[in-house]
Amino acid sequence: MNSIVENLTGTKSLTDQVVAYDLLHSTKTGIKGTAIAISESATPEVRQMLLTQFNQSVSLHAQVSEYLISKGWYHPVKVKEQINLDLKNAKTALNLG
């Protein structure tokens, strides 16, 4: 483990849950940015290239979401369970400092 990451997180390793959530968030951000770029693209060729990237990103987002759901780390349709999980994760984060 990188000592900088250890110092920042207060842990000896990043968990699969943390890495998967980060990937999910990054993918979601990429989807939003690509959607904006599609709406502003000037040529059909650029638009098609961006649409391909957009579709690949949506597919990756679905795969990562399914992984998180299968592990019980993400409850997109069970709001109460997700809130409880978010509170638990927030308490864990507060205890790291």
TrEMBL record:
<dbReference type="InterPro" id="IPR012851">
    <property type="entry name" value="Spore_coat_CotF-like"/>
</dbReference>
<dbReference type="GO" id="GO:0030435">
    <property type="term" value="P:sporulation resulting in formation of a cellular spore"/>
</dbReference>
<protein>
    <submittedName>
        <fullName>Spore coat protein</fullName>
    </submittedName>
</protein>
<dbReference type="InterPro" id="IPR012347">
    <property type="entry name" value="Ferritin-like"/>
</dbReference>
<comment type="similarity">
    <text>Belongs to the CotF family.</text>
</comment>
<dbReference type="Pfam" id="PF07875">
    <property type="entry name" value="Coat_F"/>
</dbReference>
<keyword id="KW-0749">Sporulation</keyword>
